[in-house]
Amino acid sequence: MITVQTNLIDVIDKIKKEWLTKDAQIEVNEDIANTLRNAISTRIHSRGEASDGSSIGTYSESYARMRDRMGLQTSYVDLKVYGELQSSFVVERSGNTSYSIGFDNSEDADKAGYMEEHFGKDIWEPSTQELRQIDRILSDRLNNTI
Question: Within 13 Å and on the Cβ side, how many CA atoms surround 6?
């Protein structure tokens, strides 16, 4: 006869103790929010990609000429001229242990909404790949706890 014995109860107790404290929740949620914000911002402003991974779009000929005169790239839409949308896309504490990602002023939030309507794409929603990053963060933290 084979006897099987585990320390599963001890592991579960350790996870509860280390993950269910307010400080632990704050730390994990803040890390996830910052990682997600940075990934979304990089996707949009460095690669010019919408949430589905496709190109946000292309600039009109006249707008591309203006961008070129300003020394900005023109091969794809990156929603970056002065950096206002990028710098106002922030992480803020929104509750006891929760964080929100969004724009810190209504003018840029409106611009972002207009851009999504104009290009007909979700732009600021997390992509599948970005959501997988969150799964990896949680998995890594869980593995480090165990």
Answer: 4
